[in-house]
Design a protein that fits this description.
- Helix 2 packs parallel to helix 3.
- By secondary structure, this protein is of the alpha/beta class.
- It has one domain: 3-Layer(aba) Sandwich (Rossmann fold).
- Strands 1, 3, 5, 6, 9 and 10 form a six-stranded mixed beta sheet that branches.
């Protein structure tokens, strides 16, 4: 997606061991690279409750540090639906997408007239169990003020005692011209 949206961008790929320490080191290295990157895109995550509190805190601090450096961190909202692959019939937000220092990205299907670009329909990406965009509400991070009063909080399984941050924040649209749509405002760019 990045290559299609910005074909002349310099794209660096970081590889790290599949461990908490390796993942954290990659985020820190990327956010402190020279020159400072405009964005970091993370396509990996897992259910918030699959992380230790210590690991979530360390990652969140690294992403807050990136934000302070002017780096936008984006992360996939997951690809296992609102259950995030869990089998307990509860909703589980994906981390790091649920972090308040991350722009959580989901997916939609868009049906548009290829000649005019007029949108006929847009639906959330959902090919069935374990093949759908992640989404839901964090059980760890509180809802920001601009998400207060969202009716979806009452649909979260189980209904939270305190409203959590809703994810995703944006969704990529598979159109002939790449675009990003903000899930909160509907703005496309």
């Amino acid at each position: 997606m990045v290559g299609a949206l910005a074909p002349k961008a310099n794209i660096l790929v970081y590889f790290a061991p599949n461990t908490d320490a390796g993942f954290l080191d990659a985020i820190i290295a990327a956010s402190h690279a020279t020159p400072t990157p405009a964005a970091i895109s993370i396509s990996w995550g897992q259910s918030e409750d699959a992380w230790t509190g210590q690991a979530r805190t360390a990652f969140d601090q690294a992403m807050a540090d990136a934000a302070a450096l002017g780096v936008t961190v984006t992360a996939a909202a997951g690809d296992n639906g609102s259950a995030d692959g869990a089998t307990d019939n509860k909703d589980h937000a994906d981390f790091p997408a649920s972090s308040p220092h991350v722009l959580a990205c989901g997916g939609t299907r868009l049906q548009a007239d290829t000649a005019t670009g007029v949108i006929r329909a847009e639906t959330v990406w959902n090919d069935g169990p374990n093949s759908a965009t992640g989404g839901g509400f964090s059980d760890v991070f509180p809802a920001p003020s601009w998400q207060s009063g969202i009716p979806g909080h009452a649909k979260h399984k189980p209904v939270p005692k305190k409203a959590g941050r809703g994810v995703p924040m944006s969704a990529a649209l598979p159109t002939r011209r790449p675009a990003i749509r903000c899930a909160s405002t509907g703005k496309t760019w």
